[in-house]
């Protein structure tokens, strides 16, 4: 979009606010007609804005073929809103051409107190001959015959075709050659399931227009915008107004005029509407006159930061359905995290428009010098074709704390660090899920086992030793008896061999040895008397008898065989008695 | 008598399960392998998932599952499967290699925390041979020490240097005990989890309003230190600690 076009757009867009508050000095000529009928007047104003007139020179109307019907009428105004000063001073003429033809009214010239000399643009006007034929109207059947063709109600729409989403302006205009006391809109056109907007800002000044040689005063009484939502045919239904016209009673010319109301309908109109979908993959539903701006918060970021890109779309048209335009970048270099949108809808002299802002939060996925392209595609209503606005941005991404997947993979490739995966295994085995062994009761039980075994072994050995000692003690305890038995055995042998001496010595030793060992008496002290003294009376007596017998046999030689056997039995019996008693 | 005692002891310690595993597991595994070889990874994945059995684990199955996920570009589940294979069988070489290979493709925070050489060697020894190995080593050396002491006290004539076996066995038993304790902690007491989401934020508090302290990608491991409702307090390999939504992680030991 060219800059001057944009300026004009913006100027009209903020018509009521920004233009009023502007302090630019201007001198303009404003004519309320471009064509007039001979014999009728039109109005021409010269207006100086934001300056004071020191000297003004008007064109020579009479010399140019006009009759000054009225004027100049002077009007001036001064406003000061929040420090913004606005002044204007105007001179208005009512002029009537003297003849038919085309006229060019020369410029007026003004000299301001600031020393500036300004001229208006020339004004062209055509004067045509009056026509006697009435203007045919299809919708004035409600009017009385005398008013037919004198009041018209028409829809003014420039569109012969439209696209989906386009702003179609509908101006409802009244044309009149008579005085109308009041005009009331009783029925607005309705467009179900379609976005419509009633305009507040439109040219409300009456103008002069000529139709079929008939001059009318015209005025737009209602203006609206409609935005078709689907392709097909858009039918604009009629609007209805009530006009109030004063009528004079023909029978009483002195009576006051009475008001009478007449309904008037506009004619319906059909406009073909076509769809724009599928014409461009980047098209996101914008129809109108737009410009796009991109703002990048920072063009150098680290991998820890997100990129904040703001796209601002501004212009005339319905901005509501516009979705976020796509961003183009090398695959894998960026990732769009989120898109926020804000809209500011405004109304101006040319309809609705506004500003839509898309804030993209973009995550870098690569390190290096990257580029990003934003593309905005819209249907331009003046050129009647798709237009594309592309804008490229260069972004430098440096390494931050965060390691990017892409970077890691590339580094790994560069340094041949990517290891290959192993082949899949053909067979499998299943096992119980591993459970801890350390710290379980089995572990502690097994840990205690050596200690228990050691203790058990120790006790076993201790028992064995004790048993051995016991045995030895027992053996020691049985020694006298065993000794006695051995001696008695010798005696038995001696008895068989009839060796008397050995027999009695063995008997004597068996008894003395047994008692001596049993009572721990030294060998030298084992006399018959000593031993007898240690024994009970009965055993002492028997011992004495046997020992005496032994002494007799050994020393006196008396040894009958039968007596030896008796001696042996007697000795055995005595030893057993002593054993019972002493052990 | 001693043999019988040994047998009973072995049975008590080993406590194996003689439960018969269904044949369908091996069949599903074979189907999965066939699909994988044909390049039909979605079907392979489905078959492998059917070959899993509650209460049992298979390092081979988890390894193949990991490979299939890797082929499907799902690195988070792939890492999880390899980790589970190594939990099932800590010395499983295929899973170790695959884990190393897939790690090189992942975005990981730079590791800033590195244990000292001695601690690292100690941990490697403990985890390398596993908790069970060191536990049985401890028992062996304990038995040896007790036997040597008994021999020395009761059977030998207390001559020579046979007594040296006793302190040596006790020393080895002590080291085995400590290694077993460490290995048990590393293998069973620590709960590891793997990030499954493409990007997961570590926050300074268990709330989505928390401030981001680290951003990790899928496949990263995190040690769970604390659990609080739907949040885990985790420690990353680079020593960064913070809260993460439980929905973004999957525990290795489920």
Automatic annotation (TrEMBL), chain A:
KW Membrane (keyword) present: yes
Protein's name according to its UniProt entry: Protein BatD
Species, as recorded: Saprospira grandis DSM 2844
A Pfam family reported for this protein in Swiss-Prot or TrEMBL: BatD
Residue intervals passing through the bilayer: 441-461
Keyword match Transmembrane helix: yes
InterPro entries assigned to the protein according to its UniProt record, in alphabetical order: BatD (IPR025738)
UniProt keyword annotations, A-Z: Membrane, Signal, Transmembrane, Transmembrane helix
Signal peptide: 1-22
UniProtKB/TrEMBL annotation, chain B:
UniProt xrefs under Gene3D superfamilies: SH3 Domains, Tetratricopeptide repeat domain
Transmembrane as UniProt keyword: yes
UniProt cross-references to SMART domains, sorted A to Z: TPR
TPR repeats: 59-92
Signal peptide region: 1-19
SUPFAM superfamilies in the cross-refs: TPR-like (SSF48452)
Pfam families: TPR_8
Key words, A-Z: Membrane, Signal, TPR repeat, Transmembrane, Transmembrane helix
Record's protein name: Tetratricopeptide repeat protein,SH3 domain-containing protein
Organism of this sequence: Saprospira grandis DSM 2844
């Amino acid at each position: 979009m060219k800059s001057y076009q944009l300026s004009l757009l913006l100027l009209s867009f903020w018509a009521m606010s920004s233009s009023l508050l502007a302090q630019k000095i201007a001198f303009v000529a404003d004519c309320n007609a471009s064509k007039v009928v001979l014999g009728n007047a039109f109005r021409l104003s010269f207006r100086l804005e934001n300056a004071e007139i020191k000297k003004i020179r008007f064109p020579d109307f009479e010399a140019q073929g006009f009759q000054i019907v009225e004027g100049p009428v002077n009007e001036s105004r001064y406003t000061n809103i929040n420090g913004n000063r606005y002044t204007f001073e105007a001179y208005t003429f009512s002029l009537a051409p003297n003849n038919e033809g085309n006229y060019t009214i020369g410029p007026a010239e003004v000299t301001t107190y600031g020393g500036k000399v300004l001229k208006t643009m020339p004004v062209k006007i055509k004067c045509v001959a009056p026509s006697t034929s009435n203007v045919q109207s299809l919708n004035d059947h409600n009017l009385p015959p005398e008013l037919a063709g004198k009041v018209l109600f028409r829809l003014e729409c420039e569109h012969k075709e439209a696209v989906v989403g386009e702003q179609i302006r509908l101006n409802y205009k009244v044309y009149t050659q008579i005085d109308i006391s009041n005009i009331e809109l009783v029925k607005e056109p309705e467009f179900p399931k379609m976005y419509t907007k009633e305009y507040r800002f439109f040219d409300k000044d009456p103008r002069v227009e000529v139709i079929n040689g008939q001059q009318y005063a015209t005025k737009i009484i209602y203006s609206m915008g409609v935005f078709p939502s689907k392709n097909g045919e858009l039918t604009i239904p009629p609007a209805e107004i009530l006009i109030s016209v004063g009528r004079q009673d023909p029978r009483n010319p002195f009576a006051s005029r009475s008001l009478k109301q007449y309904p008037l309908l506009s004619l319906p109109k059909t406009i073909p509407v076509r769809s724009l979908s599928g014409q461009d993959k980047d098209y996101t539903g914008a129809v109108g006159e737009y410009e796009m701006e991109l703002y990048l918060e920072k063009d150098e970021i680290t991998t820890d930061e997100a990129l904040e890109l703001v796209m601002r779309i501004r212009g005339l048209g319905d901005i509501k359905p516009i979705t976020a335009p796509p961003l183009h970048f090398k695959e894998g270099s960026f990732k769009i995290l989120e898109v926020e949108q804000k809209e500011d809808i405004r109304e101006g002299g040319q309809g609705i428009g506004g500003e839509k802002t898309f804030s993209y939060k973009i995550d870098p996925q690569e390190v290096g010098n990257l580029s990003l392209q934003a593309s905005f595609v819209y249907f331009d209503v003046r050129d009647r074709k798709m237009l594309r606005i592309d804008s490229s941005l260069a972004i430098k991404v440096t390494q931050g704390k965060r390691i990017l997947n892409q970077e890691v993979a590339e580094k790994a490739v560069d340094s041949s660090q990517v290891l290959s995966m192993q082949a899949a295994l053909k067979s499998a085995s299943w096992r119980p899920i591993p459970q801890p062994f350390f710290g379980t009761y089995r572990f502690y039980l097994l840990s205690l086992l050596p200690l228990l075994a050691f203790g058990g072994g120790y006790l076993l050995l201790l028992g064995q030793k004790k048993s051995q000692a016991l045995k030895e003690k027992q053996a020691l305890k049985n020694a006298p008896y065993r000794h006695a038995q051995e001696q008695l055995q010798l005696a038995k042998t001696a008895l068989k061999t009839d060796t008397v001496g050995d027999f009695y010595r063995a008997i004597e030793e068996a008894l003395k040895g047994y008692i001596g060992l049993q009572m721990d008496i030294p060998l030298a002290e084992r006399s018959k008397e000593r031993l007898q003294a240690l024994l009970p009376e009965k055993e002492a007596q028997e011992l004495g008898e046997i020992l005496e017998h032994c002494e007799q046999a050994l020393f006196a030689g008396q040894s009958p065989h039968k007596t030896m056997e008796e001696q042996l039995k007697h000795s055995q019996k005595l030893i057993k008695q002593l054993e019972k008693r002493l052990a | 008598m001693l043999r019988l005692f040994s047998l009973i002891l072995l049975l008590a310690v080993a406590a194996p399960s003689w439960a018969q595993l269904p044949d369908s597991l091996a069949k599903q595994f074979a189907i999965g392998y066939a699909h994988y070889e044909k390049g039909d990874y979605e079907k392979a994945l489905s078959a492998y998932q059917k070959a899993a059995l509650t209460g049992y684990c298979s390092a081979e199955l988890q390894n193949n599952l990991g490979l299939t996920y890797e082929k499907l570009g799902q690195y988070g589940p792939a890492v999880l499967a390899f980790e589970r294979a190594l939990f099932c069988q800590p010395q499983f070489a295929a899973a170790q290699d695959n884990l190393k290979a897939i790690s090189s493709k992942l975005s990981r925070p730079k590791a800033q925390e590195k244990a000292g050489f001695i601690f690292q060697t100690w941990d490697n020894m403990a985890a390398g041979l596993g908790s069970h190995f060191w536990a049985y080593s401890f028992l062996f050396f304990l038995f040896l020490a007790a036997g040597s002491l008994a021999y020395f006290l009761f059977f030998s004539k207390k001559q020579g240097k046979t007594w040296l076996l006793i302190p040596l066995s006790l020393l080895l038993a002590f080291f085995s005990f400590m290694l077993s304790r460490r290995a048990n902690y590393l293998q069973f007491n620590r709960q590891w989890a793997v990030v499954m989401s493409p990007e997961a934020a570590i926050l300074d508090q268990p709330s989505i309003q928390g401030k981001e302290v680290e951003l990790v990608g899928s496949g990263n491991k995190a040690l769970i230190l604390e659990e609080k409702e739907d949040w885990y307090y985790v420690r990353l390999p680079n020593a960064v600690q913070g809260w993460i939504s439980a929905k973004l992680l999957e525990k290795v030991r489920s």
